[in-house]
Amino acid sequence: xxxxxxxxxxxxxxxxxxxxxxxxxxxxxxxxxxxxxxxxxxxxxxxxxxxxxxxxxxxxxxxxxxxxxxxxxxxxxxxxxxxxxxxxxxxxxxxxxxxxxxxxxxxxxxxxxxxxxxxxxxxxxxxxxxxxxxxxxxxxxxxxxxxxxxxxxxxxxxxxxxxxxxxxxxxxxxxxxxxxxxxxxxxxxxxxxxxxxxxxxxxxxxxxxxxxxxxxxxxxxxxxxxxxxxxxxxxxxxxxxxxxxxxxxxxxxxxxxxxxxxxxxxxxxxxxxxxxxxxxxxxxxxxxxxxxxxxxxxxxxxxxxxxxxxxxxxxxxxxxxx
Length: 322
Prior knowledge:
Elements: H1 7-24, H2 26-46, H3 48-57, H4 60-87, H5 94-105, H6 115-125, H7 131-156, H8 161-182, H9 184-197, H10 209-234, H11 243-262, H12 272-281, H13 287-321
């Protein structure tokens, strides 16, 4: 006879099922996709002449450098996830990590922030990694990204007084509990508790301080390169080349990403991230240039996601043939 499901676990499982059902519904996905597209069209149409003027000012050299910065950002993010997984007891080869992480990342284009976690857990199982361990690494990665992003905001925005007052206070309030949560003594217990609630086994190995520190370094590097991408896109459109504007781009992107993460039902923060980034850049660029920068930034990140997922799928096909 099957063991009875605890009431708490059953209730949480039902809630998770309803939420994932809502986030995964075709109507919700199309709805948010259309809203994001409408925002982009409205932004371009409302400032058509300014946008066309900004497009004429684009420099191919800066665009290529921005694309390279985007790829480095993606690589650093993948290395952070791989370090977290290794810290939990599964050190994947680089090729396997590319397949699992970057193919799973496509899940973020569905409404909800946990789809990559689900896909990565399934793909990691093909390489002998228990689902719970891969899922735990992906969950910690989300928390670590949020914490390091807010730390980058705190580090950069004080150098940009014009926007520091709007984002500094709440970033400070949010980052402290995240850092406490990410401490190995805390996050290990939290992960075990979450696994127990859904009826799973505990982790064989909890996160360590050293492993978390290694992943944090990679994650911090990813934020710097993401801001560098925005900075390189904005330079030929009128942004002054200075340490202050670089700090604005890095901190502004971290702030925008955090806003996109909060809007969990929007695919990859569609729309919300662009609006937040535009608000930060508005003090340093004309309206047309702001629209071009935020839209190009999204296009480059999406193109990099698709390209690296394609590499991961190719690796997977070769592995199956072998």
